[in-house]
Amino acid sequence: MIKTGIDAMSFYVPHRYIGLESLAERHGIDPEKFSKGIGQEKIALPGHDEDIVTMAAEAAKPLIDKYGADGIDTVLFATETGIDQSKSAGIYVHRLLGLPANCRNVELKQACYSATPAIQLACGYVARKPDRRVLVIASDVARYELDSSGEPTQGAAAVAMLISADPRLVEIDPVSGCFTEDIMDFWRPNYRRTPLVDGKYSALRYLNALIEAWRDYQANGGLDYSEIARFCYHLPFSRMGEKAHRHLAKAAKTQVNMDQALPGMIYNRQIGNSYAASMYLALISTLDNSDMDLGGKAMGLFSYGSGAVAEFFAGRVVPGYRDHLFTERHRALIDEREQVDYEGYLKLWQAVDPGDGSERILPDEARGRYRLASINEHQRHYIDSAA
Ligand code: HMG
After folding, report:
1. What domains appear along the chain, each with residue ranges and CATH number?
2. Are 190 and 286 in contact (CB under 8 A)?
3. Rounded-to-integer distance, Cα 157 and Cα 235, Å
4. Which of 146, 155, 210, 264 could form an SS bridge with 282, CB 3.0 to 4.6 Å?
5. 182 annotated among ligand-binding-site residues
6. Does ligand 1 come within 6 angstroms of the Cβ of 153?
7. Which residue's CA is the nearest one to ligand 1's atom 48?
8. Which amino acid positions bind (3S)-3-hydroxy-3-methylglutaryl-CoA, per UniProt (predicted)?
9. 1 C-alpha to ligand 1 centroid (Å)
10. Measured between alpha carbons, how far is residue 387 from residues 97, 98, 369, 370, 384 in Å?
11. What CA–CA distance (Å, rounded) separates 154 from 42?
């Protein structure tokens, strides 16, 4: 059987953040509730001229620069914070990156889960057409109401992945365990800018879905728990991943070893929730930050999207994978950021797109080359400032 999986992956995060101690101070909360109780330190904040498109293009650009665009004939864009009810965000990215015109392009949505079916579809496709590659992008801005309990779990990031035959990073195992249940734990009606969420219920359903997906994974002939070297979880906040890891070890009747999951949480603590990108950010964090060479080792991957759909699957890290990581770039993206105070955060949070078609020229703030330069007559104008 042809091996398929992730040939290359990279992420992007905006260059501004608010430290959770500022939120804690503002709300008169003990900062340890955030740093220890939910396990988060910073929330990434997109600038006025950044959104899911600009972050996606920034995440994908290093992959195209290093591995070229030949054979990419499909773009799958996973998001739950789409900018248009009709047009796929991937079409803007396709132009910004100069991808071949003979290409299909579609947006997928199911809360934080949608990048996982994108990858499964892409693996099936490249197994049928091994000379082709699929660009899968997960990009989201996680925004909750001000002063709500979800507020410290905001964030923003994009992850881009090239899916191919004979991948250089992670081979995706065809065995998977899935679970769907119709629940209202977190949702966002079309007329709302922020989601409605039953936070504690959502955490319980996440843990239940993990066990259901794991059981299905086992029933389908998946790896034994002991065969998995590292675990990556969907991370709305890092404590959720710790709880999930404990819960899974208990279900598998084994001692928990937190070192198997902690490397995946390093980037998330500094970025916050990135919805569809989150579990893939955990995968990059694990590959970038594990002291041990993971070549040949199995990674357990748990993807969850409220509403709810969950999937447990596994990938095997390809020996020599370290030559294909963007670790230095990723670390610099996180380290070289600017802290904003509460007032700066409010300004970014409150910025809304004009709803009447009037022109808005956006300030040149993004650190990357791709910017949302203006919105006019209900059209978004993206530019490549390096072109
Ligand atoms: P909350 O009510 O503010 O927090 O909401 P809490 O009172 O439950 O406290 C949180 C933890 O901090 C607790 O620990 C406290 O004990 C501890 P736990 O009981 O969980 O072990 N704590 C402290 N620790 C140290 N020092 C202190 C202190 N004080 C308290 N001084 C909640 C927390 C996560 C519910 C909220 O932030 C929220 O609603 N977030 C959004 C929803 C969410 O992230 N749900 C996760 C599962 S659903 C999911 O992952 C899908 C999602 O990504 C969306 C999608 O799929 O699209 C969200």
Report:
1. 4-384 (3.40.47.10)
2. no
3. 13
4. 264
5. no
6. yes
7. 202
8. 30, 144, 243, 273
9. 43
10. 11, 11, 9, 10, 5
11. 9
